[in-house]
């Protein structure tokens, strides 16, 4: 962490505390904003030690630089990091230079702009030629490309299907099937994935309902074809699809597969009977549909009792459940917090803190996860910023508190959290996605 970056962060937070983000957008000079972007993003060596590889982080900050400081973006096409150069290509910056970039990812972005396709059609990397095909350029040449991904892209443009239907790659033939071409031939293709695609097109269902592959027959059931017959299919996968269609439920409610019976319960069919099913998932779903979850308060299966607690039923009983995860759900419902604040399990006490209850006591809890939950409520940050556990300090950093101190924290995760919060605040200040490029940052002598 360079001292200059730390000073920049302090400066930003000083401004943030004094003025609203909207006011900063209107009155901070463009060069100051660019300086913030430069120090945090374009100092790649510093950021690589933290989370420069996070696509969200790099994308939006470089986007901020491109949109809000358009006169200072030419250097992005020569930037040492390929992600920055790729974004420069996306913004139509320096395409003449970037078409010869050594990085495949960058040249793909150049092709995506429709630039120099006559050159990129012969690029050594298949993914670049694939993008050229997606631009519908040179399809007569690319239809015979040795790379499968390129031929798939050609098929997706609806070109050369007569030839590609005979392609040795099943992925290419599947792309042809997606175009609805040659289904009378592909219905007998050796690849089951292609036959599934044919079924999705609603073609040859009378043939495919007898297919040897259960997933193909399941696709036929999805089309609602011959469900009475498929309800007796030997594969539970097929019978499940029949149940999802809401058909033959009287038969399928007694199916040996719990997943099929579960789907029947989801359909709300004869739930008064299914709430006594031997499988707890079926029981819970049926009882929920039947408005009788109270019958499962003392169910032997943990999952059933958790679901009951999550629905806020029987909390006066479940507050004493032997399983902490059940009591945690009770706390999340805001019930019995005075008692649960002293629960022996830290997860339960953390859930109590999540309800903003007894924070003055829990802020000194011996368990870090509880203190972190307190910090997440924005309470006691002055105390917790000095906590011995880095997870607690990291939570404080995410609250945007004491950034001038935590940005110099010895723990990498705390510094990273401070950076992310700094990034989020700056992005909201720049209002990416809501403000248009080339804003008029008219300098003023003093902020309002």
3D architecture notes:
With 448 residues, the protein is mainly α. It has a domain at 182-245. The protein has helices at residues 3-18, 21-27, 30-42, 44-48, 55-68, 82-90, 95-98, 104-112, 117-120, 126-134, 139-142, 148-156, 161-164, 170-178, 183-186, 192-200, 205-208, 214-222, 227-230, 236-244, 249-252, 258-266, 271-274, 280-289, 302-310, 315-318, 324-332, 337-340, 346-354, 359-362, 368-376, 381-384, 390-398, 403-406, 412-430. The two termini are 33 Å apart. The relative contact order is 0.08.
Main sheet: strands, sense, barrel: none
Strand content: under 5%
In round numbers, the mean pLDDT is 84
What is the number of helical segments per DSSP (H or I, 4+ residues)?
Answer: 35
The best one-word shape is: flat
Chart the SSEs and their pairings.
Blueprint: H1 3-18, H2 21-27, H3 30-42, H4 44-48, H5 55-68, H6 82-90, H7 95-98, H8 104-112, H9 117-120, H10 126-134, H11 139-142, H12 148-156, H13 161-164, H14 170-178, H15 183-186, H16 192-200, H17 205-208, H18 214-222, H19 227-230, H20 236-244, H21 249-252, H22 258-266, H23 271-274, H24 280-289, H25 302-310, H26 315-318, H27 324-332, H28 337-340, H29 346-354, H30 359-362, H31 368-376, H32 381-384, H33 390-398, H34 403-406, H35 412-430
Helix pairs in contact: 2-35, 3-5, 5-6, 5-35, 6-8, 8-10, 10-12, 12-14, 14-16, 16-18, 18-20, 20-22, 22-24, 24-25, 25-27, 27-29, 29-31, 31-33, 33-35
